[in-house]
Design brief:
With about 475 residues, this protein is α+β, with helices and mostly antiparallel strands. Helices cover about 40% and strands about 15% of the residues. It has a six-stranded antiparallel sheet with strand order 1-2-3-4-6-5. Strands 7-9-10 form a three-stranded antiparallel sheet. The protein has a two-stranded antiparallel sheet with strand order 8-11. Strand 3 and strand 4 form a beta hairpin. Helix 4 runs antiparallel to helix 6 and helix 10 runs antiparallel to helix 11. The longest helix is centred in the C-terminal third of the chain and has 28 residues. The radius of gyration is 40 Å and the shape is extended.
């Protein structure tokens, strides 16, 4: 039985998966899985379903990498990453991913048919895909398998071409300990012709600059029509990468400008520190040689790079874990990260402080009123100095513009004058004087109700006016 016949039996063409996905045909077979075309029974929309290959089901690491593809792709919100709709396990234990159905072909197919591309076409396609790569790097994800076969040219409405990045199955979460790396002895991960020197020799050192190398190989392949480091085996390719220099790009592509040739050469520097440090730097070097499509892509890359929100993403966390900032600009990314969940907590603390301060003021005034004094009557020079200004401000304080001024009766006025005359101005009262003042204030007063006058102009309280 051939491989394709065996695969068709394995995926059970015509069956309905999870009660809603009807499997129709096989559309692709890769190293880790087989992809089939299916239709959502209720929505009647096409989807692509990727199953893990049967001979890998007993390998725990391969199953974990298969599921990691869904986690990585779901975290990246760029429209240039194939969407993952669902992740589940079939009744017989086979895991699968439900993804968006794409119509078009890969960059690899395009290169096989055309040989090489023009500089403008090359820069446009590479930079559009770099929108997704820039976002992945901002999230701490290194793809590690960038190549023309994973650069899908999807055709949408009106035959509009959109780049989609495929296969994050061997991506690396650089912000967390990744127990699934090739350093554990699971074998070499990636496609050797596009792998960086550090990925070939010391995979534990792989970071975003390894993807920059892979992008440089892709640029070279598109422009020159050949690989910069050809070889029939992994060992031969490794020797070419680690020891030899590629043929000068200018000799193979006369249409490439010197600046473009230099940009590709910098990507292919063996020393990682000498390469471009980010996708943004590479994009700025390439954009002069592209069209308006490349300029739009660079604007999105710049917006993603301004986020400065590299988060720690662990491959062991839940797939449903949400991002702590929202990306939105031109439908894909954005330049602001908002953390609105902290704002209500800050407002609560602010109001609590205001309430406590107000309560302290009220309790303080009540305490001094119970002791028969005020802030200005506290003993010492400070109290003496403060009493005079306080009285002067009270004497000159006007009533509100539209208010009810209470005209005290003669008996009330005389009682107030008697109380005020007990204590000379500017002198702190002794305990005897304080008792006399209390006695005078508590003396019976006339029961006649005071007259109330409502005025619309400022008016002084007559009691304070008598103290002039």
């Amino acid at each position: 039985m051939g491989v394709e016949a065996e695969i068709q039996c394995f995926v059970e063409l015509g069956s309905t998966l999870a009660g809603k996905y009807r499997v129709e045909r096989v559309i692709g077979i890769g190293g880790m899985g087989v992809v089939v075309a299916a239709q959502h029974v209720r929505l009647r929309e096409p989807v692509a379903i990727k199953f893990l290959m049967p001979d890998l089901l007993r390998r725990e690491r391969q199953v974990a990498r298969f599921l990691r593809e869904a986690r990585a792709a779901s975290r990246i919100k760029s429209p240039h990453v194939v969407r993952v709709y669902d992740v589940d396990v079939r009744s017989d234990g086979v895991p699968y991913l439900v993804m968006e159905y794409l119509v078009g072909g890969t960059l690899s197919h395009l290169l096989k048919s055309q040989g090489q591309l023009t500089p403008a076409r090359t820069v446009d396609l590479i930079l559009e895909g770099c929108e997704a790569i820039a976002e992945a790097h901002a999230l701490g994800i290194v793809h590690r398998d960038l190549k023309p076969a994973n650069w899908f040219l999807a055709l949408g409405a009106g035959e509009l071409e959109t780049v989609k990045i495929l296969d994050f199955g061997i991506s690396k979460f650089v912000a967390a300990e990744d127990s699934l790396d090739a350093t554990t002895g699971a074998g070499l991960l990636g496609s050797p012709p596009y792998m960086s020197p550090e990925q070939l020799s010391r995979p534990e050192l792989v970071d975003a600059r390894s993807d920059i190398w892979s992008l440089g190989v892709m640029l070279y392949r598109c422009l020159a029509g050949v690989l910069p480091f050809p070889g029939a085996s992994v060992a031969e390719i490794s020797v070419q990468v680690l020891r030899n220099q590629p043929i000068a790009l200018g000799n193979l592509c006369a249409a490439a400008a010197p600046g473009l040739v230099d940009a590709v050469a910098r990507c292919l520097t063996t020393d990682a520190s000498a390469r471009y440090g980010s996708v943004l730097e590479l994009g700025r070097a390439l954009v002069p040689y592209g069209t308006e499509r490349a300029t739009r892509a660079l604007a999105v890359i710049e917006a993603v790079s301004r986020l400065d929100t590299r988060i720690k993403t662990s491959p062991t966390k839940s797939d449903a874990e949400a991002l702590p900032y929202t990306l939105s600009a031109g439908g894909s990314t954005g330049a602001r990260a908002t953390h609105a969940s902290n704002q209500p907590r800050a407002r609560t603390k602010l109001w609590a402080g205001v309430v406590l301060a107000a309560a302290g003021v009220v309790l303080g005034r009540h305490f001094f009123a119970e002791r028969g004094g005020s802030w200005a009557h506290s003993p010492g020079r400070r109290g003496q100095a403060a009493s005079a200004p306080a009285e002067r401000s009270a004497t000159l304080a006007p009533a509100p513009t539209t208010s009810a001024s209470v005209l005290a009766s003669p008996s009330a006025a005389s009682g107030a004058d008697a109380a005020s005359s007990l204590v000379p101005r500017g002198q702190p009262p002794s305990s005897a004087r304080r008792r006399e003042r209390r006695r005078a204030l508590s003396a019976p007063r006339s029961t006649a109700e005071p007259a109330v006058s409502v005025t619309s102009t400022p008016e002084r309280d007559p009691v304070y006016d008598q103290r002039k």
